[in-house]
Amino acid sequence: MSETERTKPEIEFPEGPAPAELVIEDIIIGDGPEALASSTVKVHYLGVEYESGEEFDSSWSRGEPIDFPLAALVKGWQEGIPGMRVGGRRKLILTPSLAYGTAGGHPLSGKTLVFVIDLLGVR
After folding, report:
1. Per-residue b or e along 83-109, where b marks 16 or more CB atoms closer than 10 Å to that residue's CB
2. Beta-carbon neighbour count of residue 79 at 10 Å?
3. DSSP string across 68-92
4. For residue 3, what pLDDT band results from cuts at 50, 70 and 90?
5. Check: CATH 2.30.180.10 for 23-122?
6. How far is CA 43 from CA 14, 16, 17, 79, 107, in A?
7. What do you get for the CA distance between the two ends of the chain, in Å?
8. Helix, strand, or coil here: 62?
9. DSSP designation for 21
10. Domain residue spans of the chain
11. Quick one: which of 78, 75, 66, 73 has its CA closest to 121?
């Protein structure tokens, strides 16, 4: 499926307590090249807070995907994206330690975050 055929995902409000470790769930299995830990990835993504379900960031809302070295992204993405194939859609639930830390200067510190990521390209 091309990136123009995909639509912004909806994340169902999670039930129960936040998980204690990284959750990786493939929604769509891609059939393109595989993302490696050393890859630069082109993704569309949506991020919401686990507790409130409120969206805090979305490349969909900005109208364009992002292109970043995986090594430069939060630890949960560094662990949760490798092995994913282009064309896939994956949900990641990141504990605070895999996102923006358990405490500190970031507004999302201490929060469990849910991302739905569409992998559009790797290099």
Report:
1. ebbbbbbbbbbbbbebbbbeeeeeebe
2. 16
3. EEGGGS-HHHHHHSTT-BTT-EEEE
4. very low
5. no
6. 23, 29, 28, 15, 23
7. 19
8. helix
9. S
10. 23-122
11. 66
| 3-class secondary structure, 57 | strand
Provide the Cα torsion 62, 113, 43, 45; round to 10°: -40
Task: Quote the CA–CA distance of 39 and 7 in Å, as a whole number.
Answer: 24
Does the predicted model carry a pTM greater than 0.90?
yes
Whether 37 contacts 77, CB under 8 Å:
no
Within 1-123, where are the H helices? 59-62, 75-80
Rg (CA), the chain: 14
**9-33 confidence digits (pLDDT tens):** 988 777 889 999 999 999 999 999 9
Quote the CA–CA distance of 70 and 81 in Å, as a whole number. Answer: 8
Q: In DSSP terms, which residues pair with 121 in a beta bridge?
A: 42
